Amino acid sequence: MEKVKIAILGFGNVGTGVWKILQENKKEIMKRSNYDIEVAKILVKDINRKRDITLPKEMLTDNIDDIINDESIKIVVELIGGPGVAKEYMIRAMRAKKHIVTANKLVIANWSKELFKIAKEENVLFYYEASVAGGIPIIREINESLTANKIQQITGIINGTTNYVLSKMTMDGISFNEALKEAQEKGYAEADPTSDIDGYDAVYKLAIMASLSFGTEVDHDCIYREGIRNISDIDIEYAKQFGYTIKLLAIAKQEDNKLELRVHPAFIPSSHPMANVNDAYNAILIKGNAVGELMLYGKGAGDLPTGSAVVSDIISILRNNVAPNDAKNEIDKADFKEVKKSCDNESEFYIRLDFKDKAGVLGDTAKIFGNNDVSIVSITQDVEHTTHATLAFITHKSSEKNIKKSLDKIIKLENVNKVESIIRIESFK
């Protein structure tokens, strides 16, 4: 059986997972790829660092040139992550006629056009299944299984950290800070959780999926983004009272050649399957005009789930033949579709107000909503203190523009203290 040499850039959590899979599933991988895969080099920062896995010393290098200049290495697996040197190393490897596999969502979301242009010029393959949802094969589903469909909408829970935090708040009744600390202790959240908690990670992933699904370039800066830092235990309880569960959703819709792209917390019906996606799991619901609704569920992060997607891409390259031969990349999008401004989007809303417990507030508030074409479905009032209380509203579908106009006036009412919370409702209708 022919042998093929690969190199791994970075040997952290995912790199270790890739190594384990290649060793433990070696026979199965040889059968499915018709190649014997040999890891020839692993790029690390410190060759002498003590590791849980014992590796031959000659396999380790801290010099990228040892990989770029080695003509026997045919595939480079980039697992360094982040924007730093990862992009530079991938470009250099492609210029040296090496195929690329990466899990780097940030680089794909920012520079896919440049990277795929170079891959096309050099006639090499560039695969990135692990960049979006770990072990869930969403890229392959969009590019292969759903090619007969016009994809109309994607709704996803695609960040394990935020899903873990919200799940713990919902099921265990703990605060945001307590849930985040627990996520960090379990390794689900970084010491600096900004990328996850504030929605950046989900934005990068949504940009990749939307680009593939709708055949257009998507600038992630055009995606509306809102994180979960302001979700309180009070909102969790109100959600339950109204029959909802709070999740951080990534949503992409196409209508009349315009895109609606947003990442934000949302109330979703507790009866919906996505409400039961808990812990650090991910789920992606795709709506196609032929297949209807299709939901993919699984682990969205971790060494082995993400490593599984990486190794799957390696096998795909081998099946396409590692020798450059009219290589075809997965993204070649030229169409432009306008992204709607968030103020033009429509949704149902949950709104929570803090107000002085005096007569007339409810009537004044309802009147302002009505004057701005915002219709109220449900209202709940809970008195929390002797001097002020809470009003929680559920609205019918309204434009964000009208919601903002209403709240700008409501906050000026004498007895309204603060707009505590505004959360969109995704009813999946």
CATH architecture of the largest domain: 2-Layer Sandwich
Unreliable segments (pLDDT under 50, ≥5 consecutive)?
none
Number of separate strands: 18
* Distance between the ends: 53 Å
Q: Tell me the name of the CATH homologous superfamily of the largest domain.
A: Dihydrodipicolinate Reductase, domain 2
Range of strand content: 25-35%
Percent in helix? 25-40%
Radius of gyration (CA) equals 24 Å
Largest sheet, described in full? 12 strands, mixed
CATH class of the largest domain: Alpha Beta
Enumerate how many helices there are, as a single number: 15
Taken together, the total number of domains comes to: 3
Overview of this protein structure:
This protein is an alpha/beta fold and 429 residues long. Helix content is 36%, strand content 28%. The protein is built from 15 helices and 18 strands. β9 (244-255) and β10 form a beta hairpin. α4 (86-95) packs parallel to α5 (105-122) and α8 packs across α9. The model has no long low-confidence stretch (mean pLDDT 91).
Summarize the structure.
By secondary structure, the chain is of the alpha/beta class. The protein has 15 helices and 18 strands. The chain has helices at residues 13-24, 26-33, 65-68, 86-95, 105-122, 130-133, 138-145, 160-172, 176-185, 194-197, 200-214, 233-242, 303-319, 361-371, 400-410; strands at residues 3-9, 36-43, 60-61, 73-78, 99-102, 126-127, 151-157, 224-225, 244-255, 258-269, 281-288, 292-299, 338-339, 346-356, 376-383, 388-395, 398-399, 416-425.
